[in-house]
Task: structure prediction
Amino acid sequence: MAHKQHAVSQLERHYRRIRGELAQIEEEIVRAGTSGPVLRDRRAPELVPRNEMLAHIAACIGLFDPDWAPVQAPPIKPRKPSDPDKWGRLLNWAYDVLRPAPEPMTSVEILDALWKTGRVTKKQAQDYRARLTTLLRGQERLGAVRSTGARPLHWSIIRAPSRALARTE
Result:
């Protein structure tokens, strides 16, 4: 029984992902407006195989669960994968700035130091401020950094980061 449920859940997840890809293609065509027919012609080779896959997957699910209906499976919107190294790199750079610092620094001061060294642009420094604070709070929970209780938070290193955060450059 468990294998049957697992098979249905995996097939349904695959079905939902393909429906999400189709929905995204359709959105692109609608957004294209007057050039929509041109875009539809260009993307048509992608639409036909996906629609066929949906029919095959729905038939397979029907073998395991005759009561299953495609309406029960809302599409999963495809997401652009994030850069897994980006936030770890930012945290390592923050450690590089905090290590030699004679006194605790705010997130803004850390990002300004990174901007001055050329590791981030001014725009990135503005965009990364909240994310850096979140990353440092996570490190505070692990006991690697300490913050002052007052705002703006000033950060200092308590101990060296774990091996998972070791420099990878």
About this structure: The chain has a mean pLDDT of 83. The helical segments are 2-32, 36-64, 84-98, 107-117, 122-127, 129-141.
